[in-house]
Amino acid sequence: MQLIVTSQITKEENLWLWSLCNRIEDTGTVERLVSEYGKNKTCRHYEPVMDMIVRANRKQFGLEDKSMCKALEEIMGKHL
After folding, report:
1. DSSP per position, 26-38
2. How many CB atoms lie within 10 A of CB 15?
3. d(Cα 72, Cα 68) in Å, to the nearest integer?
4. What gap in Å lies between CA 2 and CA 75, rounded to an integer?
5. Which of 39, 46, 48, 57 would give a disulfide with 24, using CB separation of 3.0 to 4.6 Å?
6. Do 17 and 9 touch, CB atoms closer than 8 A?
7. How many other CB atoms are there within 10 angstroms of residue 51's CB atom?
């Protein structure tokens, strides 16, 4: 068994593991995640991770009021 303490990981070490939380506060991290997901969206491993990150950080991804920002909608498509 492995235990990952995400609070001890930096964004620079591993953006995806660090983002598995509900503490994303800056738009730069959101933009970087969306950009990285866009580059790798054909890889089936990225979709469930991005889904968890977005659901945990709805406000930061522009989903707090159920309206989705255009860029995220284009990249994520029907997956949200």
Report:
1. -HHHHHHHHHHHH
2. 15
3. 7
4. 32
5. 57
6. yes
7. 13
Question: For residue 19, what are its two tokens?
Answer: 């983002």
**In angstroms, rounded to a whole number, what is the distance separating the alpha carbons of residues 66 and 30?**
17
Which residue do the tokens 């950080």 mark?
Answer: 57
> Which tokens sit at 80?
């949200």
Q: Mean pLDDT across the stretch 2-22?
A: 88
**Segment 21-51, tens digit of pLDDT:** 898 988 899 999 989 998 987 888 888 888 8
Could you tell me which of 10, 51, 13 has the C-alpha nearest to residue 34? Answer: 51
